[in-house]
Fold this protein.
Amino acid sequence: MQMKDQLIALIHQANPWLKMPGVSILNNDYIPRLQTAKLLLPEWDNLWLVLVGPRQAGKTTLAKYLSHVLIQQKRFENLLYLNCDLLEIRQWLTSPLFIQEAMDEFHLKHPIILVDEVQRLENPGLLLKACADLKLNIKMIATGSSQLEMKSKVQEYLTGRHLETLVLPLSYQEIGSVEEAQLIYGCYPAIVKSTEKTILLSQIYRDYIAKDIIEILRVSKPDAMQKLITFLAHSSGQLVNYNQLATDCLISVGTVHHYLSILENTYTISRLTPFVGNKRKEITSNPIFYFIDNGFRNQSLHNLSTSLDARQDIGLLIQSAVFQELLKFKVQRFYDFSLHFWRTQSGAEIDFVLYKNENDIIPIEVKFKTMNDPVITRAFRSFIEAYQPRYGFFITKDFNKKIIVDNCEVNFISFSRIIRLLEKLEAILQASRRI
């Protein structure tokens, strides 16, 4: 079967290195991602590597970087990049025969096949499975932006044939600094690099909500979805009240649950469930939702004020940023702990509880205010008494100190040093692995 000239031209346009081997696969401003070392292990060479996550979070860039390294290491010879946002590409990718057609047309040997936004294909799971079952000496990488579509269209077909990883916006560890701009504009790579953050954030947000969520997923009530996002932004960090959201958005509770699921599975928000230990007085019902990126949360509120001292929501911005960094830390380091909040019927609460097992329970409380002494809240002390954690943390405005409370090492760490918190958590979790 002969490839059409227009298709060949499109592929050459997206793959200039095929005609000019000296052309770099990478952009010069690539920011290294923490997942890279794990993803480059040779044991994954014969599996599909599936990168999921929000658009603009850097999936394609990471995939190209991995390809660049694999080619440098001579484990594979060249890259074929295929963007499924293009109709011509989608029409071509209907059978695994495309691999042989591409290898013949572009003179490929031991290539890396990168299929971008694979969920746009009609039957992507069957195609990827068929490609894997050919057991060719090729590396296969796919990316996808919607977990809803990836689950139904891809993942169920690839059991035992793929490694999946979540790619989120940049972490502070990857950026290498903690700056006020990140609290306002968020950490999407293009925005971190941009000098026109307001314009770019508005564009990314508008495209993401209008195209990826409302249009592609066929949301029946787009105005209600927009309202829901705004109300979530106002109430982020609080127990969700489904009935109130339904009333405010003029939709049913069932529709609220459905739309929340869409927002979760397109990586706009993330659900935090209550920590339930062995105490009957703990709240076990509704979750809390946080935005995965502060920029999206602020854009939905049309509040991009960079005067942090004047913002009434500064505490929530810090709390949300801490959640986001903990989530990225878990994903980027491939840890298997779970994140929760803790709240009792009497009102005691801890913002975050990192739970790995009964021996590794770490409470983390955000108190973004000026401190002169290491003050332990009553709720924090109650948690220590109930669960005897070995470590606990307070995230403060500008106070740093370490104390011992009932055999628990409590670290007070200023938000500007949150990278230190993540380094400390890594040391704790690595030590527990060796026990």
Summary: The mean pLDDT is 91. Residues 5-167 form a domain with the Rossmann fold fold (CATH 3.40.50.300). The longest helix spans residues 197-215. The first strand starts at residue 48 and ends at 52.
